[in-house]
Amino acid sequence: MSDFTDAPSAEVVTTDGDVVGRTLSAAHAEDFEYITEFVPASAIKALTEEFISVTIVRTPYARVSLAITYHDQYPHKPPGVELTSPSLPFALLRKLEKDCVDAAKAELVKRNAGEAQEPPQEKEGKVQAQAQAQAQAQSVGLVEVIYSSIHKFIHTNIFVPCWKEMKQLVTMCTELKHPLQLDEKKGLLSMRLCSGEYRQGVQITVPEAYPDEAIKVSSRVVVVELYICVCAYVWPYAFVCAAEER
Predict the structure, then answer these.
(1) What's the mean per-residue pLDDT of the chain?
(2) What is the pLDDT of residue 194?
(3) In this predicted structure, what is the pLDDT of residue 51?
(4) Superfamily of domain 9-156
(5) Would you kindly state where each structural domain of the chain is located, as residue ranges?
C-alpha cells in the first residue's frame, strides 16, 4: 500500500500563518508532527504539503535556514534539501546539504533492510500482534533525520562561524607539516609549529559567542633538540670534574 493512501488528517500551516485541515500521507503527517513538536514556532517559516522551511540558530553568526521540498516519490526517495545563511560560506552549505541527503539515504537503506527480513513465525498470537504493532510504528518520514543532522552541526560545532578560516589553517598546517588537533565541541585548536631545532605549541580557544567575543591564545616554546645537545656537553664535563675532585 502506498504511503499516500488511507492517510490521516493533519493541520497545515501556510506561509500566511493560516491553519488548514488537509488529508496527508503518513510520512507528511509524521514530518509535520515532528516539526511542530520540536521546532520553536518562531523558527517555522513555512509548513505546507509542498515544502517545509525552518530556521536553526545558535548565534547570529551560526544561523542557517533549512528548506525541504517534497516530490512525488517521497518518502521512498529523500526530499530536496536547500540551506541558506547570511554568514556561512557557500561551500559549507553545499557540503551540509549533501550530508543531509546522505543521512536520509542511509536511513532508507536501514528501513528497507528491516522490511526485507521475514518476520519469525511466533506460536503465540499475542507476540505476533506486538510484532505487527512495532512494524506499524516504524518511522516513514525523513524530515527528522535531515533536521537533526543540521541542528546537531550548528549547536555542537563551535567552529561554525569561523569555518572558512579553520579550513585555511588546516590547509596551511598540512602543507607545512605542523601537527594540528581540533576539538569542535570545545572550540579548542592545538598546533605545534616547527622550525629547525625549535618547537612552539600554540593553543587557540574559540568562544561560543565568536566573533562578538575574542579568541584566547596561549603558547609554549619547546626546544627539545637544543636541550639534548646542551646535555651532551654538560654531562661529560660534570663527570670529569667529579673524578678530579676524588
Answers:
(1) 79
(2) 84
(3) 94
(4) Ubiquitin Conjugating Enzyme (3.10.110.10)
(5) 9-156, 161-245
| Residues 89-139: tens digit of each pLDDT | 999 999 999 999 999 999 999 988 876 555 555 545 555 555 554 444 456
Q: Which of 181, 223, 233, 186 lies closest to 202 in space, CA to CA? A: 181
**What are the cell numbers at 36?**
511542530
Q: In 3D, which of 41, 52, 70 has the Cα closest to residue 150? A: 52
Nearest-angstrom CA–CA distance, 237 and 231: 10
pLDDT in tens, 178-195: 899 999 999 999 998 888
CA distance from start to end of the chain: 99
Strand arrangement of the beta sheet that strand 216-222 belongs to:
180-183, 188-195, 198-205, 216-222
Contact 84, 127 (CB under 8 A): no
User: Residue 50 is placed in which grid cell?
Assistant: 509542498
> What are the C-alpha distances in Å from 219 to residues 169, 189, 199, 201, 237?
17, 12, 11, 5, 34
Coil/strand/helix, residue 147:
helix
Q: Among 232, 225, 229, which Cα is nearest to 195's?
A: 225
